[in-house]
Description:
Elements: H1 2-30, H2 34-43, H3 48-57, H4 62-72, H5 78-87, H6 92-97, H7 103-141, H8 164-193, H9 195-202, H10 208-217, H11 222-233, H12 239-248, H13 253-260, H14 264-286
Helix pairs in contact: 1-8, 3-5, 3-7, 4-5, 4-13, 5-7, 8-9, 8-11, 10-12, 10-14, 11-12, 12-14
Amino acid sequence: xxxxxxxxxxxxxxxxxxxxxxxxxxxxxxxxxxxxxxxxxxxxxxxxxxxxxxxxxxxxxxxxxxxxxxxxxxxxxxxxxxxxxxxxxxxxxxxxxxxxxxxxxxxxxxxxxxxxxxxxxxxxxxxxxxxxxxxxxxxxxxxxxxxxxxxxxxxxxxxxxxxxxxxxxxxxxxxxxxxxxxxxxxxxxxxxxxxxxxxxxxxxxxxxxxxxxxxxxxxxxxxxxxxxxxxxxxxxxxxxxxxxxxxxxxxxxxxxxxxxxxxxxxxxxxxxxxxxxxxxxxxxxxxx
Length: 288
């Protein structure tokens, strides 16, 4: 037992310096005024899915929450929100950056999620645009007045700390704790079950594994991305599965969405849509 704890502790300590440098950079870049950001996103709605994919690639948990808040205020489109959620990898990028042997997988992961986020986002916006256009035509035929909703200014909570050095340190400690716990649990499972038996169980059906990973990705916490990356780095799940899980995992995005958007059924549909897109992407990669 002590050997398992020591292994998890050593693995976590090795990664902490890289985590701190990455979060320091992210804190510096993200330290801006949310109201101006909200106005900018509203003005660039047509290019929203691309902008959302770019923001989602940034390795942090703040943008998904900010964008969920903007969506609840109708400042961004559904396609933009989905693009952010799909592109977000939360803590996966910092962890993989700390392991040079995973750089090729990391690059592939980022490119696939980035491209998929843009495609999914634009397709969703086009479909919604066509549906709304048809509805508008029906309303005009019935001589009904279509009024535009007033949009509130973004009043998102600022995800950055006043002191970026301290904020990056606190974030590093929190994620390191998640990483230590995830590493210990995985080591414990492998010790009890055996790596070969665990891998064989998960690989029983290559199309089922991405779905299981997508379910894990639905957990609205940094811990889900940490767990998925740890399982992948230990060759317990496939690349397709980690892509699926991380495409569903949006950090605190879903939590903020359910908190800010009062349409509960709409939130459920968005959650199911994100899950379906992640699972579909994982299964598609499994085919190749």
